[in-house]
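--- STAGE predict ---
source: upstream dedup step, 1 unique chain passed
mode: sequence only
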Amino acid sequence: MKKRILCSGISFVLMALAGCSQNQLNQFQRQLSDVSTMISPGEQHPSDKQAERNEIAQAFSLPVGVDTAALRLKQHYGFPSDEDVSAARNNGQGNAGWSASAISEGASWSAQPGSYYRMSRNWAANDRLTIEVTGDAKRSNVTAIYRSSNPEHLKPEWTARLWKQIPEVARGTKVSREVGQ
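--- STAGE serialize ---
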């Protein structure tokens, strides 16, 4: 994950300095993501061997901008961004470091506003939910990956509500906050 973020950041800076357009940068990022998937398939998009990796995934194409969809998903499911952790660390309270550590534990966040967001956090007992949102100002593609070492948690009885909620939340049609299964 750290390599991907570093590689994406370096690539973005190099291409920006070279005078590439935003479309070229987005296309390059998709290609970089494809390469990352080939290098470490367990980190990215699911394949036919999902069950062997103890994960299931759903993808949604939605008529809502990428920034809006990502913000709604972030808020509804409680994904902390780097800014959230920084704000907690700098809140001026005596327990600021502890607070920042607590909200960031088991979570990861990466974003390129306007085109890409990836948020991940521990979910339920020992499970993990990762949501990746790509797109533009008018449309977004959301891929949600649910990982669990418990095979029961990968069954539709466990995940059906989550798969129903994610597109509703991203569209803005689901307003109540229900965290976890």
